[in-house]
Amino acid sequence: MINLTINGKEYPVEAPAGMPLLWVIREQCELTGTKFGCGIAQCGACTVHVDGQPIRSCITPASSVEGKNITTIEGIAPDENTLHIVQQAWIEEQTPQCGYCQSGQIMSAVALLNENPTPSDEEIEQAMSGNICRCGMYGRIKSAIKRASAALQASTSNPLLP
Amino acid sequence: MKKWTRRAFIGTGILASGALVIGVAIRPGNRSSKVAGLIAEEGETVMNIWLKISPDNTVTAIIPHAEMGQGVHTTLAMMLADEMDADWSKVKFMEAPADKEYANYVVAKGFIAGDKTFPKFLEGTIDGVFLTAVKSMNFQITGGSASVRFTGQQGMRIAGAAAKAMLLQAAADTWKVPVEELKAEKSTISHPASNQTATFAELAQAAAKVKAPKQPRLKTPEEFTLMGTSQPRLDIPAKVTGTAKFGMDVILPNMKYATIKAAPVFGAKVKTVDTSIPSDSEGILKVLNLENAVAVVADGFWQAKSAINRLNIEFESTENDGKSQDDILNGYQMAMDKALEEGSIEEHFRSGDVLNALSEAETIVEAEYQLPFLAHATMEPMNCTAWVHDGKCEIWCGSQNPLGAKAAVAELLDISPDQVTVHNQLLGGGFGRRSETDVIKQAVAIAKEVDYPVKLIWSREEDTQHDVYREATISRMKAGLDESGNPVAYSHQFLFKHHPPEAADLPYSVPNQLIQFTSPNSFVPWGNWRSVDHSVHGFLTESFIDELAFAAKKDPLAFRKSLTQDKPRFQKVLDLIQEKSDWNSPLPTNWGRGIAIAQSFGSIVAEVAEVEVNVEGKVKVHRVVCVADAGFAIHPDGFKAQMESGIIYGLAAAMSGEITIENGAVAQSNFHDYQVTRMSEAPKIETHIINSGNPPGGAGEPSTPVIAPAVTNAIFNATGARIRQLPISKTDLRVSIQQAT
């Protein structure tokens, strides 16, 4: 039995040794916003934050993140009725197509903006190139990150951190 | 986003007074009360199969297509709401249940009629024929860039217009005023002269008793209020919060997980496997021999995957065990030679006398091209949840073909299709892959061995190695130019002809043409891959025409213009792309510019790529300008998004996409060796839409076929190296670029 803290909530789970965090999140915690894409940290669909840092949950053993703060796509909005600035920007740019990769894209974007609120094009490309989008919405993802960055600059009362 | 659920069916299937259900002209025959039972809740009126009106005056569009990112739910709802003059803020959508009542007659009609529009007066006759054809085919597919073109144009719009006509008539009858004096606006009918108004909902019951118009008048583009605008997509909010449900996300009470290890060589069978539960594994419930694969059922996917990796499975040997990619390609060359020698090669198109024209030509240009197998690599790996219980089967998955799935499951279990329920979910990418039923059948084969629901998930490795592939192929092209550089003869021999049938047509005026093909056997399973045969012929035709332009010493864009003077739509697209791409402006050293144009799925798309080839031979595509004659773009931003998507999808294939066969099996396994375009490699895309007044063209596929040739033509422009083999990564461009600069 291990205790995971996900989006501020405690989840006591039975995870066999070596079981990746991804499958605990999806199957045991039933938080299905985090996606399985490749299983070898190549596509970024499974990106979550551990103590604010983006990690690939498909290769991270659940046991290694016990006691840390895990944040998934379900946990980034400030409250039930408000979207995160990045989520809002995603809607304004009409970014997703099929949408399957977008949780991972958004988690990577949030981590980037936490680290660097005004990234250049090159910095965005570098930070986001671990996230594949087979619908090819890279232009819109980039625009949405810039829009979120601008909204962040304009907002003094709306902290980005969840 | 509302889906039909079993619970809703049992709870509310009682509405069902047949009098409330009304057919529209394009779906002749009695609209059955059965459908009303499936989609209507208490107090709701089903106006026809594509919409219902709720007591709160909400209009729900019932969409017989799957959402895989193309925005079809939004766009089709817009088409219906616009014709109906419904209040868009009160319009909802619901995906139609997989039921034969929703067999998509209009899609089938579009396909069978070969994308040709036919005279209005024939529609009645054609419907009769197609009805029978489609019933036997069980169509409810999403593909062929067809949703807007067929379901939208001939289904949703007519349904909306018919509903409005009926509501107007109901108001006229109720108020005893001439129908011409009434106005429909924002889900309300009003009679300004007598100052009376009523909502759609208030008139719905009366309207349902009005005789449906046979040919309701459709709006002209000037009257559109929603069509031609970019309404925010209805499916997007759930996709940014992680709440959108894909097949992968289905959770059912007592559900278990399964994964498989398929025979690596196509067609091979399992020879031996120990199906007892391995003693060293936790949470393993079942090991199953599925003949062509082994499945493990467990408490979780990871447990199942870990266990299957440790199983000792022996597969039978087959005649394909030793086959390599070279064997396949050599076989293709031999098959082509043989077909030509024996005269068994089939004719795709012939005009004039090619042999004679070639013998008299001033210049002969000859080239051989080669394309690789391609996998779909949807973001969401293949999966399906199945539950076999009480003589019934329920499945949950994202399918482009839910009725096909239903039929396949019924056949597999030997039960009536009525006992099979398909709960279609959002698709994490389709691109043609999710029109297959292989994974669904496999999930059911596993589920029938247990008494609980099972979610089958394929690993990315299985997804890559057991896809259905765009074929690898070769092609031989030959053309003759006269002394002024005009092409007078065009000969093309290619392999395989799937669909659409016109894909190999040459859009250029060449008087003597002979286009032929043969179809050798292939043990590698084939499947629809975004744009299907156009993904092959876009590259072949547009590469070769570029070679001809060079041989004729003409500008590639001007050359294309000179050969399409009988095609005004092509002329306009070429003019606009010349302007928007700054075609004649100089580029930096090591850069090149290339163009390609093709008509597919009713749209004409040209792309100009600007590429840089550095001294290491590495290709970077900086900018793609895309001009599309969309006929009429119902949702311009959605259309643009589809152009962007198709370009990146085609670019991934052009740059590095290649599935190869080694020892009879696919050599690649995951995104590290089947590489796709990432953000750092993605060009800036600028899309310009032409609304030419023609019927709406497809959006999901037509930008894919031309990106590869636009890029390779640009590489030729930069380096002088003509790429005749895809992917581009196979060609070492170092020497060419060094010589060029």
Question: What attributes characterize this protein structure?
Answer:
heterodimer, A: alpha+beta, Ubiquitin-like (UB roll), DNA polymerase, domain 1, 2 domains, five-stranded mixed beta sheet, B: alpha+beta, Aldehyde Oxidoreductase, domain 4, seven-stranded mixed beta sheet, 20 helices, 21% strand, disordered N terminus
What would the CATH topology of the largest domain in chain B be? Aldehyde Oxidoreductase, domain 4
Mean pLDDT of chain A: 95
The CATH superfamily title of the largest domain in chain A? Beta-grasp domain
Unreliable residue runs of chain A: none
Number of domains of chain B: 3
CATH class of the largest domain in chain B: Alpha Beta
Number of helices of chain A: 5
CATH class term of the largest domain in chain A: Alpha Beta
Give the helix tally of chain B: 20
Please characterize this protein's 3D structure.
The complex is a heterodimer of chains A (about 160) and B (about 750). Chain A starts with a strand and ends in an 8-residue tail after the last helix. In chain A, strands 2-1-5-3-4 form a five-stranded mixed beta sheet, sandwiched between helices. In chain A, α2 packs across α5. Chain A is about 35% helix and about 15% strand. The model of chain A has no long low-confidence stretch (mean pLDDT about 95). Chain A is α+β, with helices and mostly antiparallel strands and about 160 residues long. In chain A, a hairpin with a 2-residue loop joins β1 and β2. Chain A folds into two domains: about 70 residues, Beta-grasp domain (Ubiquitin-like (UB roll)); about 70 residues, DNA polymerase, domain 1 (Orthogonal Bundle), CATH 1.10.150.120. Chain B is α+β, with helices and mostly antiparallel strands and about 750 residues long. Chain B folds into three domains: about 230 residues, Aldehyde oxidase/xanthine dehydrogenase, molybdopterin binding domain (Aldehyde Oxidoreductase, domain 4, 2-Layer Sandwich); about 150 residues, 2-Layer Sandwich (Aldehyde Oxidoreductase, domain 4), CATH 3.30.365; about 270 residues, Aldehyde Oxidoreductase, domain 4. Helices cover about 30% and strands about 20% of the residues of chain B. Chain B contains 20 helices and 27 strands. In chain B, the strands form seven sheets. Chain B has a seven-stranded mixed beta sheet with strand order 10-11-8-18-15-16-17, with helices on both faces. In chain B, strands 13-21-20-19-14 form a five-stranded mixed beta sheet, with helices on both faces. In chain B, β15 and β16 form a beta hairpin. Chain B is globular and about 80 Å long. Chain B starts with 5 loop residues before the first helix and ends with a helix. The relative contact order of chain B is 0.10. At the A-B interface, α1, α2, α3, α4 and α5 of A face α8, α9 and α18 of B.
